[in-house]
Amino acid sequence: MEAIEQNGSIAAPTNLTVDDVDVDFLPLIYDIIRSVERDPHDSTQKTRESQDISQKILELHKKFDEARAQIGRLPGVEYSKEEQLKKLETFRKQLQLKKDLLRKYREMCTFEIPK
Asked: Which residues of 60-86 are buried (b: 16+ CB within 10 A; e: fewer)?
């Protein structure tokens, strides 16, 4: 996805990581459950509590939608499981080749320079 700045130019997409995705739903869920468990006896208070619960549920749905949008922007999500596994195997092979090259260079003879 491309990010568009206010002046109309295209900005570089931001690199989003898993740690940046906001998936902290438990406080909202806890508030909803606590609100449902309360049983006010006054009908006007019941109406107000019902509206508060509805508002909290809407906030939770909004938070779910935001999380879905953020997850959709994570790098690599566009690949299927098979493609991801194929890339992982390729990267593992590259890592092993680089490790082998490093080991080879370390074991090479070093030449002493006369002073």
From this structure: beebeeeeeeeeeeeeeeeeeeeeeee
Domain range annotation of the chain: 3-78, 80-109
Alpha-carbon dihedral angle through residues 15, 19, 25, 31, given to the nearest 10 degrees: -120
73 close to 16: Cβ distance less than 8 angstroms = yes
Residue with the two structure tokens 């749905």: 61
Question: Is-above-0.90 flag for pTM?
Answer: no
For residue range 48-92, list pLDDT tens digits in order.
888 888 999 999 999 999 888 888 888 878 888 899 999 999 999
The two tokens of residue 86 are 């194929």
Cα 115 to Cα 111: distance, rounded to the nearest angstrom? 12
